[in-house]
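Ticket #4471: structure export looks truncated?
Reporter: QA, pipeline team
Priority: medium

Steps to reproduce: submit the single chain below to the structure queue and open the exported record.
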Amino acid sequence: MYDICIKQIQNKYEINMKGRYCRENKRTGWSGYISPSRFYDIRVWFPNLRNDHIYRLWRKRQQERQKRKTKRQQERQKRKKEGTAGIREKNIRKWSGNREIDGLRRIIYIWQVTDYVSDIMSLRTFLKDLEKNGRLTVIDRPVSKNYEAPIICSKTKGPVLFTNVDGSRVVMNLLGSREELGAMLGVPKSEIIAKLSGLSPEGEVVVVKDSPTKEIIIEKEDVDLTKLPIMKHFEKDGGLGYITAGVVVSEFEGEMNASIHRLMVVDKNRLAARLVPPRHTYVLHKKASEKGQKLPVAIVIGADPVVTYASTTRVPANKEFEYAAALRGAPVEVFECANGVKVPHAEYVLEGYIDPEERVSEGPFVDITGTYDHIRPEPVIHIERIYCRKDPIYHGILPAGPEHLLMMGVPYEPRIYKAVSEVTTVRNVILTEGGCCYLHAVVQITKQTEGDAKNAIMAAFAAHTSLKHVVVVDDDIDIFDPADIEFAVATRVKGDMDVMIIPNVRGSSLDPRGAPDGTTTKIGIDATKVLAIKEDFERAKFPPIWKTEWSGRDAGWTLPEKRQEEKYF
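Actual output as written to the record:
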């Protein structure tokens, strides 16, 4: 099959054909596969392109494919020498029917992978991209997992990779900013919520036979969690440290859940899990406990960032991996652990079960507000097996750090966006860092009537019941700039008319100012223009100017109507 992947053609004709997924396709979109007998049809579809231009592009793609083929052959030879030749790369083409494009019928294929494909769409690939773009800080000197690594992480902006945390590799701040989150999703940060709100959890999950995660298997008698780079972050942290980026995958009676829970190390093979009612893991554990059964679980650490992010979202039950596939634009591969739980490829997988009866005191732990949460009796996870890669990379999230805040808050933003879109024209939504990415929201709307802002406030509170304060602004306010939001409050708010106070309503259990019964007082602020006098709120702008030729020390400047040249501002 001749692989034609030409981005300008895809853009011009809006072709949406599914093909074999690969690293290149993640950036450029789906590729179409056109047979040699149909090569003439390309000239019919795209008469504006010269045949030699198409041939050069096709030839370039053929050369790239040959390089990848050679690389795969070298990797197979290497695995053969290492004694892992049984792990193969194998693609099987699956016919998915015909599709009509520009009046012509074409056979479109979906490619399924029956054995794992190494490093495609993985944590390691994401780190390589970050390093290539100069956004990854690498620390090579030896660092302690107790306090030192978290302190360095708190003082480092952006993702940081430690090459020697007590002998192990550790990455932190992986999705510590909206820039990294946008890079993961392939959109600018201003378009993140629009993309997330338009996706449905209907991606494809493929069960595979093997995984790079199983390169090393540690059996029950050798399990020792203290040998992993599990960190103590703050001076009053409970236990022997906390796993903070572990995706707990549980299955019981045909139901599956994948979600992040904080996990306190009790001893070398036991963890205390904070299970919050009525989250799905809590419900599954309760069902199993009522029947006196253990709940099988697998804790995934260092998965593809898309999978890790998807596990934090509020999607329908059993749909976390489908949602990850929809975000990724390609199937998510999962393999089956010895206890029957199916998990995606990762750096570490800890296999075990949650005991139906056993409880231990869990905490203290620093939550998103930067304050210590209460100590509670929580269920115990017994670890019976550890799978990991050779030289694995441990993923840790700094409690109350930027990654913790974004992972907690961003999944709620699409919910608020959808709710507000039911009552007015919404432009964007953000849960602010100053509000712990959880308690404060800013909603940007295009105001049509005077009641729109107050309707947006009520819709936002209904969509995210833990919200404490909501500010609604116009579409001329930059919601990513705290100073611009403060400007809107300063110039467009009249306290007796534009501030809503709602007492004695359900709030967040994480709010230190909340009442013992969980209630709080919520405030909504309408910081939008008064439509009847909106010209009074018009913000002054400079006219666009163009740069002219430089002469010595001085530069000439002219207005656009006099000289049309390249914009300087």
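Status: closed, not a bug. The export was complete when the record was re-opened. Leaving a note from the reviewer for reference: The CA atoms of residues 137 and 156 lie 8 Å apart.
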